[in-house]
Specification:
The protein is of the alpha+beta class and 299 residues long. 31% of the residues lie in helices and 17% in strands. It has helices spanning 40-43, 49-56, 70-91, 154-160, 176-186, 190-218, 229-232, 255-262; strands at 31-36, 98-109, 112-116, 130-135, 164-172, 240-242, 270-271, 277-278, 282-288. It is globular, with a radius of gyration of 21 Å.
Length: 299
């Protein structure tokens, strides 16, 4: 995809007020790495229990006087059922957690984020030339934010000594959970199906959150992290993790170059013609280090 033409002043394409000249952290390597065999204990501490119990399992408490409240349901039903499912997941080997992640040089131009080749990336292309371009939408109101604004422009890269760095990651729970949930559904065991499926979604998100924390540590940004999970879940850390299909980057087609760069087939993950990841218990993201990068709606 060709980079967008330079925007004329005062038009919709004009850059937002995002701070420029931010120091770029040094990545531990350029390119991608695969990590397999992650233990459940490594990322279980990032499980959002409230999202699991309320959002996935529907434990919301009674609205009538004398009925069990949310905290009572968590104590009597939520946590006991969670312990049972976690034991079953481990006993039956339902999780084969894996991650592929990497760091790539990049520059911005208007709404475009241009990901560059780096030395020894295996493509034979010269370092600094365009690898692929991600074009993001811009807010029509407010700060007129666009994800590309959080990265150095090519001119800034030349002036400040080098390009910016884009983190990318893709995590998966492996295929066994999808098979197990499908079997429960076929057996009409709907409560078990809903609980295991909901838990699998939240475990995938927990692994993504855990790995994002590792990326921040590798980039030297971990000192800004909240010491509590509640703070982490409220983005109390530097930068942000953006997944395709959500408000800041709604175009699922942008997932294709990320998948091409990260090659998640090494983990058994594929991309469908509808740009969906398979198995379902997989999620990808770009990682932005800019301190002003938080969730926003670009549409």
């Amino acid at each position: 995809r060709a980079p967008a033409a330079p925007p004329p002043p005062g038009t919709e394409e004009e850059l937002s007020d995002v701070a420029r000249g931010i120091d770029v952290p040094t990545p531990p390597f350029w390119g991608d790495r695969v990590v397999k065999g992650l233990a459940l204990a490594d990322y279980l501490g990032f499980l959002d229990e409230r999202a699991t119990f309320r959002g996935q399992w529907g434990l919301k408490g009674s609205r009538t006087a004398g009925g069990p409240g949310y905290e009572e349901l968590v104590a009597t039903e939520g946590r006991p059922r969670l312990r049972l499912w976690l034991e079953r997941i481990q006993t039956e080997g339902l999780v084969q957690a894996g991650v592929v992640h990497g760091y790539f040089p990049c520059v911005s131009h208007g709404r475009d984020l241009i990901v560059l080749h780096h030395e020894d990336d295996g493509t034979g292309r010269p370092a600094g030339t365009e690898r692929f371009t991600l074009t993001f939408p811009r807010q029509r109101q407010g700060r007129r934010l666009c994800l590309a604004d959080f990265f150095r422009s090519r001119q800034e890269a030349e002036r400040l000594g080098g390009p910016d760095v884009l983190g990318m990651q893709l995590v998966t729970m492996g295929p066994a959970l999808s098979v197990a949930t499908a079997e429960l559904f076929d057996k009409h065991a709907y409560r078990d199906y809903l609980e295991l499926h909901g838990l699998s979604v939240q475990l995938t998100e927990a692994l993504a959150e855990y790995w994002h924390a590792r990326v921040r540590a590798e980039l030297g940004l971990a000192e800004a992290d909240s010491p509590k999970l509640s703070g982490i879940l409220r983005q109390r850390y530097r930068g942000s993790r953006y997944s395709f299909g959500y408000a800041a980057c709604p175009d699922l087609e942008l997932r294709a170059p990320l998948v091409q760069a990260l090659r998640p087939e090494r983990l058994g993950v594929s991309l469908s013609e509808e740009y969906q990841l398979h198995p379902e218990q997989s999620t990808d993201a770009i990682v932005v280090h800019h301190p002003e990068a938080k969730y926003f709606n670009a549409t």
